[in-house]
Amino acid sequence: MIAIETTSLSKVYVSSFGKKKVRALNELSLSINKGTIFGLLGPNGAGKTTLVKLLLQIIFPTFGSAKMLGENINNYKLKKSIGYLPENHKYPSYLNGGEVLRFFGKLSGIDGKELDKKIDELLEIVKLSKWKKTKIKAYSKGMMQRLGLAQALINDPELIFLDEPTDGVDPIGRKEIRDILVELKSRQKTIFLNSHLLSEVELITDRVGILNKGNLLREGTVKELTEKKEEYKLVIQKISESIELDNATKQSDNSYVIKVADIAELNRIIDNIRSKGILLKEIVPLKSTLEEMFISLINESEGTANE
Ligand SMILES: Nc1ncnc2c1ncn2[C@@H]1O[C@H](COP(=O)(O)OP(=O)(O)O)[C@@H](O)[C@H]1O
Ligand SMILES: [Mg+2]
């Protein structure tokens, strides 16, 4: 079942004088299945927060539409099924952790014993039980993000939107947040994660979208996005004169990267090298990291944008 579906969703911000226009999101069409973790990656200013705010109806689209859990996003009843951790969230610093959750619980219509129980459960999940009565001004960045996550879960939502949940959090804190997200997924929750941190997204997401300047450049599993089709690195025994290979880029005296159509072509090239009496030391199928893919994709799109 589809959890989130957008059709040509677009947002143009217009300044108060109507002079400056920012195309923050450009005809974005996307479909996210229920019970999965989707990571939206992109540099600062890509339009990630804009997309989340559009889906949550904090701002409204210039063009296009979206559905969540089968309902048009303007159906206010959807709010009950949604949890949201905004980017750079701030709570009044005189409140303690328990009070912050109580405030948001009441906003969600929970009260009494049910809310008491829920607060303790959530503080346990985000490992803040010991800090329940401590004023949040004493919390570290990681603790604030975990409290924000608990806040986003207070109404037991189906769909959870997290905007840069691990921003400013140390590696151990990040791992803790990732573990919580994986646990939520095991309970069939759908998680939409905005991040400019590739490593975060790579580790836990089912699918990834790459956004730059409002355009969705690519969408797929991390595996699909990082596999270079039919590229191999061949390392040969060092030889005095260079050899001629079709579709090959020489990397160093004894290594070449070749592009082939299929395994048969790879083997023909190997036979050709071997027939010259040259020994092969290594044949490595090439795969890029998400980071390499991301950087080359962003660079490519900048190139075409400047043309
Ligand atoms: N309220 C606004 N008014 C005008 N421009 C905005 C507004 N909010 C965001 N923008 C612009 O829209 C673009 C996308 O911003 P944003 O969605 O915050 O990106 P991201 O979350 O990926 O960093 C940026 O160029 C940003 O400056
Ligand atoms: Mg943002």
Total count of domains: 2
Tertiary shape: elongated
CATH domain class of the largest domain: Alpha Beta
Low-confidence stretches: none
Oligomer: single chain
Radius of gyration: 25 Å
**Bound small-molecule species:** adenosine-5'-diphosphate, magnesium ion
Specify the CATH homologous superfamily of the largest domain.
P-loop containing nucleotide triphosphate hydrolases
Largest sheet: 6 strands, mixed
Beta-strand fraction estimate: 25-35%
Number of strands: 14
Helix content: 25-40%
Total number of helices = 9
Order of helices and strands: EEEHEEEHHHEHEHEEHEEEHEH
> Which structural class best describes the helix and strand composition?
alpha/beta
Strand order of the largest sheet: 6-7-8-3-9-10
Question: On the 0-100 scale, what is the average pLDDT?
Answer: 90
Second rung of CATH, namely the architecture of the largest domain? 3-Layer(aba) Sandwich
Key terms for this structure?
about 300 residues, alpha/beta, Rossmann fold, Alpha-Beta Plaits, 2 domains, 4-stranded antiparallel β-sheet, about 35% helix, binds adenosine-5'-diphosphate, binds magnesium ion
General description of the model:
There is one protein chain. This protein is 34% helix and 31% strand. It has two domains: 2-220, P-loop containing nucleotide triphosphate hydrolases (Rossmann fold), CATH 3.40.50; 228-290, Alpha-Beta Plaits (2-Layer Sandwich). The chain contains nine helices and 14 strands. Residues 13, 22, 24, 42, 44-50 line the site of adenosine-5'-diphosphate.
